[in-house]
């Protein structure tokens, strides 16, 4: 995953308030629940010495995406009385957090973004389809198209009816024409977001015809066939549930590919694990992909420099820098990775790696 979306929060020269909140919108008084969570986080920031104007800046924007139902989270970063960045998270953070540090601490946001893949959702039937394309981590589609082709003679007549063969041919032709247009919409949508996955649901016959059209000029992205459709609310609810499940599986498979690459490169001496070797490689700008476990309990404090954002050391004396500061390891490793143009992948739970830190490196 590209980390450059975090650059604005790491280019700040002063201390930063980093807030991660559960802003899920369920059926029961979501606004009140979010208000209580923010009140606790606000109190914590005050106890840590966050300036009143910085806390007030968060006051003005906190609350999540009110038009997005269901589970979600929010990541907010503020300094010097202004918001540096505000992000909606696809899933709530493991726990609410609010810290005021010399540097932004965006690991929960990075983990959430790392779980998202650009994808296209297609619900197809005999009349057409709904095609929605989502960039990675987007709550709303950037491309939407609803296609309803001609419905004349779209339903097949009963066997034995007058001219039933002609009607059948006309029906099949219309189905084919409709799905041909849908296939073109899918190609356009997949190109729009550089889709990793294309999820298709709906009428089996229409899906079969659509598959034929897509085979001639396949779009970028892997096809996954899921349950659900667009005929009614029940079908739409089923589609959402099956898409969520399929996207989770696609995320696990994507991560496993990186972990397999890590194992192979560790065996060949082209990757590193453990805090000290990874720190050194980051400081030299040699890290291609930084891998971190999401559970950073007991994360040690490290030292970094205002002047050299790549530098991360365990001993402040090694920097000889009067602009040095101390912060948790995960925040400083991410900062160095951003400025070194490294990619990022979570070390999934259950992955054995020294200190929960590893890196694919450039030689």
Short note summarizing the structure:
The chain has 363 residues and is an alpha+beta fold.
Question: Topology, please?
Answer:
Layout: H1 7-10, E1 16-22, H2 30-47, H3 52-59, E2 73-79, E3 82-89, E4 97-101, H4 107-114, E5 119-124, E6 128-134, E7 143-148, H5 164-193, E8 197-202, H6 204-216, E9 222-225, H7 233-267, E10 271-273, H8 275-283, E11 287-293, E12 301-305, E13 312-313, E14 324-328, H9 329-339, E15 343-347, E16 357-361
Report on this model:
With 363 residues, this protein is α+β, with helices and mostly antiparallel strands. It has three domains: 1-106, Translation, Eukaryotic Peptide Chain Release Factor Subunit 1, Chain A (2-Layer Sandwich), CATH 3.30.960; 119-256, eRF1 domain 2 (Nucleotidyltransferase, domain 5, 2-Layer Sandwich); 268-362, 2-Layer Sandwich (60s Ribosomal Protein L30, Chain: A), CATH 3.30.1330. The chain contains nine helices and 16 strands. It has helices at residues 7-10, 30-47, 52-59, 107-114, 164-193, 204-216, 233-267, 275-283, 329-339, and strands spanning 16-22, 73-79, 82-89, 97-101, 119-124, 128-134, 143-148, 197-202, 222-225, 271-273, 287-293, 301-305, 312-313, 324-328, 343-347, 357-361. It has a five-stranded mixed β-sheet with strand order 7-6-5-8-9, with helices on both faces. The longest helix is centred in the C-terminal third of the chain and has 35 residues, at 233-267. The protein is globular and about 75 Å long. Mean pLDDT is 87; it is low at 150-164 and 166-171.
């Amino acid at each position: 995953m590209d980390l450059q979306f975090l650059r604005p929060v790491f280019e700040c020269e002063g201390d930063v308030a980093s807030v991660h909140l559960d802003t899920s919108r369920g059926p029961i008084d979501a606004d009140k629940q979010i208000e209580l969570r923010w009140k606790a986080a606000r109190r914590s920031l005050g106890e840590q010495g966050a300036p009143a104007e910085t806390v007030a800046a968060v006051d003005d924007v906190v609350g999540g995406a009110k038009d997005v139902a269901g589970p979600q989270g929010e990541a907010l970063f503020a300094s010097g009385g202004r918001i540096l960045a505000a992000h909606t998270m696809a899933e709530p953070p493991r726990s609410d957090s609010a810290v005021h540090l010399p540097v932004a601490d965006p690991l929960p946001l990075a983990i959430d973004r790392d779980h998202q893949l650009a994808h296209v959702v297609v619900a197809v039937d005999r009349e057409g389809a709904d095609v929605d394309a989502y960039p990675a981590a987007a709550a709303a589609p950037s491309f939407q198209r609803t296609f309803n082709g001609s419905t004349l003679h779209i339903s097949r007549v009963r066997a034995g009816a007058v001219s039933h063969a002609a009607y059948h041919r006309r029906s099949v032709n219309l189905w084919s024409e409709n799905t041909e247009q849908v296939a073109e919409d899918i190609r356009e949508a997949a190109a729009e977001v550089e889709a990793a996955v294309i999820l298709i649901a709906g009428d089996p016959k229409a899906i079969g015809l659509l598959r034929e059209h897509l085979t001639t000029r396949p779009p970028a992205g892997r096809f996954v066939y899921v349950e659900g459709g667009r005929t009614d609310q029940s079908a739409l609810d089923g589609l959402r549930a099956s898409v969520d499940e399929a996207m989770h599986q696609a995320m696990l498979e994507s991560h496993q590919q990186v972990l397999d690459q890590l194992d192979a490169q560790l065996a060949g001496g082209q990757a590193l694990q453990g805090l000290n070797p990874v720190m050194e490689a980051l400081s030299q700008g040699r890290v291609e992909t930084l891998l971190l476990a999401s559970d950073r309990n007991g994360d040690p404090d490290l030292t970094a420099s205002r002047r050299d954002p790549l530098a991360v050391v365990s001993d402040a004396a090694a920097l000889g820098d009067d602009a040095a500061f101390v912060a948790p390891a995960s925040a400083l490793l991410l900062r160095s990775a951003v400025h070194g143009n490294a990619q990022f992948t979570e070390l999934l739970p259950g992955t054995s790696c020294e200190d929960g830190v590893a890196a694919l490196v450039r030689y």
